[in-house]
Amino acid sequence: MTDQTTRPEDVAEKGRIARIIDSDIFHSFIRSKVTVIAAIVTAIFMISALLAPWIAPHNPFDLAQISILDARVPPIGMDASDPSFLLGTDDQGRDMLSGILYGMRISLAVGFLSVAFAAVLGIFLGLVSGYVGGRTDAIIMRIAEVQLTFPAILIALLIDGIANGVFGNLDRERWAVWILTFSIGLSFWVQYARTVRGSTMVEKNKEYVQAARVIGIPSFIIMFRHVLPNVMGPVLVIATINLALAIITEATLSFLGVGVPATQPSLGTLIRIGNDFLFSGEWWIAIFPGLALAMLVLAVNLLGDWMRDALNPKLR
Amino acid sequence: MFGFISRRLVMAVVVMFVVALISFTLFRFVGDPINQMVGIETTPEQREALRERLGLNDPIIVQFARFIMGALQFDFGNSYQFKQPVAELIGKRLPATLELSFVSALFALFVGVPMGVYTGLNRHSAISKLFLSVSLIGVSLPTFFIGILLIFVFSVHLQWLPSFGRGDVVALGGWWTTGFLTVSGLKALILPAITLGLFQMTLIMRLIRAEMLEVMRTDYIKFARARGLPSRSINFIHALKNTMVPVITITGLQLGSIIAFAIITETVFQWPGMGLLFLQAVQNVDIPIMAAYLMLTAFIFVTINLAVDILYVVIDPRLRTERSGL
């Protein structure tokens, strides 16, 4: 056996890529120009957020780099602008572009983490609810119903408020991102649970599950190894749409002043800071982070919309 | 029918009970209520006396029963930050929030329905596509940023409308204040109402559009066409009527969200309503206000849900048999 021989994995790999390119979903993706643009925008935003420490022109957290003398410099194209600050600076002299890149990191991190948290919790409860049924199902679904009575933002705000009381102000700074993730995640799990429960109840009566049961495989292995992969399709769609919602919720909470503290600003925190300068003419401090947020959410929403249609066999 | 309504009623009571339990737990266990009420110089003996007087040493069940009794009379004690009865504070703020919510719901309905009918009837026209793109952008922009943009354009730039507060209000009766009767009050309403109603408006528009597309394909519409009825009466009387059931449901349910989203709008516009009060309470860990707000909004939500459920069954006879089987 030499290295020249084609390994079977390569063939499988090639086959998989070819299969993806040939699939319906890929075709519908390429056909829709809006979706392609949305995907590109999302990718650019995510990559630049990920690479923020390397590509940002300034480090907004490095006190040695920022100078109060650079405060409130307008973006280029306006009078008294400075070419090294493309989008201007805020009241502390921090570069807006860099601030937005770093802020997007926090926004996306909280968004992804809270969606992951909500999905794991919701999938777990939905699987158990649908598979076990009976009283467990009734209890979980009643809780879900009660929670569904209230809008997610109210629940997130409330959990955040409770955490405020429990942690006190000192610890809050350190834990803010995690508290935020937890409160957003906890306010979004219901949708996953209900969807997964529905599909689990359908899967439960299929032959492969019955067969697995007959040969004595324990319930939790059937649930997580056999049923779970078959109910994941809709979860992906919900997760994408929820990512946009989670980012909005994070920004909203931060804007309201109960989210991420000003020491590690997210996009919402930046808008909150900028809001105070709207009337003194420094509009760019609030508007640029807001536009970045809106573009990000719009792109993710468009992707989610497309995915919902593409994965829905009824619409084909 | 009766069975269905009574089951819903029981569910509503259970929800209120759970919310009361959460509020009580909040009030009793998040931080020490005594610490919040007294100053640093209060001696341990005085604290203990206060604790005894407020009944905080009684068994938890007794305390919870007392909390429920208080809640039924809307008595939640004094706010930690304002040292005033919570009921009074909320009562003073309630008219502002209700007026704002009412106006934005009207805005959402009276702009959303015609837009929905238009886009449903003329799917491929350029204006329909414009409406749809705008609605997608409306959904993607966070409420607070829409508010900021409106302030930036209409208050800072054009200086047409005020950016904060309610303007001049007129007192009606003992406790209601209204901004409807003064010019500055009405002007102050415009931007917050649009901000708050925009999301609901896009929702109603998309819903009506989808329903219209569905209804226009049905046989009875084709038949009405064949009979030569004028298209105006087909579109607005025969078709629109049948799209109304889901619209009533969604709009009803959205009334609750409007009250919740009022928190954000009120913060952006410094609107002196309940939401702003609640947000300050969250920031300052003012538990009595949080508990009271929670109970009040839960009550509003549960009542709306119940009303919508019942209305649904009353409007659409087909649902009676289906639903009562649940």
From TrEMBL, chain A:
It is found in: Cell membrane. GO terms for cellular component: plasma membrane. CDD domains: TM_PBP2. Gene3D superfamilies: MetI-like (1.10.3720.10). The chain crosses the membrane at residues 34-56, 106-132, 144-163, 175-196, 234-262, 283-304. Keywords: Cell membrane, Membrane, Transmembrane, Transmembrane helix, Transport. It is a multi-pass membrane protein. Residues 104-304 form the ABC transmembrane type-1 domain. One of its GO terms (biological process) is transmembrane transport. Belongs to the binding-protein-dependent transport system permease family. This is ABC transporter permease. The lineage of its organism: Bacteria, Pseudomonadati, Pseudomonadota, Alphaproteobacteria, Hyphomicrobiales.
From TrEMBL, chain B:
It is found in: Cell membrane. GO terms for biological process: transmembrane transport. It is a multi-pass membrane protein. GO terms for cellular component: plasma membrane. It comes from the Bacteria. Residues 94-312 form the ABC transmembrane type-1 domain. The chain crosses the membrane at residues 9-30, 100-118, 130-154, 174-199, 247-271, 291-315. Keywords: Cell membrane, Membrane, Transmembrane, Transmembrane helix, Transport. Belongs to the binding-protein-dependent transport system permease family. This is ABC transporter permease. It comes from Pseudovibrio exalbescens.
